[in-house]
């Protein structure tokens, strides 16, 4: 199961989303739509969103996604078992700070 957070710099909802994921210990891959044209096209054309953050959650049965800061959905990810080991949490926190802020 993989989680990707599409965001951009100076985005309050993006910051809140990645901070909530970090606090919950949820493993995710950050993508900056302002620096990654492929990520931008995926969010806008494939998924149809016009705002970030967009959280995409790959599961064994398919893909779920949503836009905006949604604490209840983040909590669901926590209960779904997306907690990595300590080294992965540190790497994800560093990457999200550099990429999404």
Automatic annotation (TrEMBL):
Transmembrane segments: none
Pfam families according to UniProt: Glutaredoxin
Domain (Glutaredoxin) ranges: 3-56
GO biological process, one term: cell redox homeostasis
Example of a GO MF term: electron transfer activity
InterPro entries: Glutaredoxin, Grx-like_ET, Thioredoxin-like_sf
Name of this protein: Glutaredoxin family protein
Organism: Kocuria coralli
């Amino acid at each position: 199961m993989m989680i990707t957070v599409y965001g951009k710099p100076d985005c309050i909802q993006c910051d809140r989303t990645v901070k909530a994921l970090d606090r919950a210990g949820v493993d995710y891959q950050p993508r900056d739509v302002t620096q990654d044209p492929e990520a931008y096209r995926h969010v806008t054309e494939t998924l149809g969103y016009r705002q970030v953050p967009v959280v995409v959650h790959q599961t064994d049965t398919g893909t779920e996604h949503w836009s905006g800061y949604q604490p209840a959905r983040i909590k669901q990810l926590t209960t779904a078992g997306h907690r990595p080991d300590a080294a992965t949490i540190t790497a994800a926190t560093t990457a999200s700070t550099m990429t999404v802020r």
